[in-house]
Amino acid sequence: MSVQTKFHGEVDIETISQWTFPKGLPGLEDEKKFVLLPIEGNDSLQVMQSVGRPEIALIVSNPYTLVSNYSFEIDEPTIELLDIKSQEDVMVLAVMTMKQPIESSTVNLQAPLIFNINSKTAKQMILNNAKYQLRQSIGQPVEKGAR
């Protein structure tokens, strides 16, 4: 099966894992199937591409490599929805906003993407923690006093 993508042209996704977001993404509730595609020359970023709509593609990355003191707990509804059994089941990514120069790019720490690597299901979980921003500068620690 081939899909048209925003950044990679036509891609055969037959051998690529498809991730199902049972409830879609906030603002994109009808988009439930995505694939993660590499970005050539950059091992830390990926494209989360909608299988159904080529124009929907988000740049994502591991937030723990971008912001030094990021941490949160996965809420019970997310654990249940994704059928998470252990910490080893989980992969966390965050949506990036890319800017030039790259150092001025930001990462959304307020709404991480939670993936169950066993069931291939995922959810964007909204955190109710004011210390995390929608547009946190990459490479900057989260301020300890922020609430």
Keywords:
2 helices; 7% helix; BH3618-like; mainly beta; two-stranded antiparallel ribbon; 147 residues
3D structure, described in words:
It is a single chain. By secondary structure, this protein is mostly beta strands. The protein has helices at residues 63-66, 76-82; strands at 2-5, 9-12, 18-20, 33-39, 42-50, 57-61, 90-97, 106-107, 113-116, 121-124, 136-137. The strands form two sheets. Strands 3, 4, 5, 6, 7, 8, 9, 10 and 11 form a nine-stranded antiparallel beta sheet that branches. The mean pLDDT is 91.
List the helices and strands and how they pair.
Blueprint: E1 2-5, E2 9-12, E3 18-20, E4 33-39, E5 42-50, E6 57-61, H1 63-66, H2 76-82, E7 90-97, E8 106-107, E9 113-116, E10 121-124, E11 136-137
Antiparallel strand pairs: 1-2, 3-4, 4-5, 5-6, 6-7, 7-8, 7-9, 8-11, 9-10
Task: Offer a quick outline of the entry.
The protein has 2 helices and 11 strands. It has 147 residues and is mostly beta strands. A hairpin with a 2-residue loop joins strand 4 (33-39) and strand 5.
CATH superfamily descriptor: BH3618-like
- Reading off the top of the CATH hierarchy, the class is best stated as Mainly Beta
Radius of gyration (CA) equals 15 Å
Fold-level CATH name: BH3618-like
Number of contiguous helices? 2
- The portion of residues assigned to helices is under 10%
**Arithmetic mean of pLDDT:** 91
Low-pLDDT stretches: none
- Report the order of strands and helices: EEEEEEHHEEEEE
Question: Largest beta sheet, briefly?
Answer: 9 strands, antiparallel
